Amino acid sequence: MIRVATFNVNGVNGRLPVLLKWLGETHYDIVCLQELKTSDEKFPADAISNAGYGAIWHGQKSYNGVAILARGKQPHERRRGLPGDADDTHSRYIEAEIDGLVVGCLYLPNGNPAPGPKFDYKLRWFERLIDYGRLLIKDAPVSLLCGDYNVVPAPIDAAVPARWLGDAVYFPESRQAYADLLADGWTDAVRLIRPERGVYTYWNFSYRGGYDRSSGLRMDHLLVSPSLTDRLGGAGVDESVRGWDKPSDHAPAWIELDWPR
Description:
Strands 3-4-2-1-12-11 form a six-stranded mixed beta sheet. Strands 5-6-7-8-10-9 form a six-stranded mixed beta sheet. By secondary structure, the protein is of the alpha+beta class. The protein has one domain (2-257): 4-Layer Sandwich (Deoxyribonuclease I, Chain A). Helix 3 packs parallel to helix 4. The protein has five helices and twelve strands. The termini are close together.
């Protein structure tokens, strides 16, 4: 059994104490990180290595950035950047092979303000992901696509759906693109294992400290290829991390897979 987690850290250096505490308490086997907000040379590789993890990363100063961590070993990098647009300079996708699994870590564009150029870019990026996802299922049938999708798939994935009607993460086009990705065979692992209401991975910051629980959204997802669906065990969200000192606005989501290390 291995455990895979995804976590939008909202600044890997600024939130490093939170990240290291979480890694030390949970000991996940594979970890995907998003929104690093740091250049490649300033990624905290030594601190993460001292915590027991090998890492690969695709950084970008002040914005975006993704990384894949593996406990006790070095991930084998397969791809850096999503194919389909040679002019796209955003650091939003990285892919590794770990223990025979192909793991893609992604940070999908937010798309706000919408409608507008940023939303158009989001939909184009989504189409590239859908196209690449089809190739991945064909060429690497034992694979995962994990990360911050910036998509709230359905009303059940928002504490108060009506407050997000004007937000790109809840636009019909965003939700349809996510549905199209699943239609190709990918399984939303957390939703499959946890079908109930109240499963969220994001909450707004509160001006009074803490966080606004009524703003809960589920938009960090772990998708597994068809051959892995029957190997799913547990799944959940480490919601308590959202309440730690100086946290990200996201909490980590995780799954368990019946897979040999």
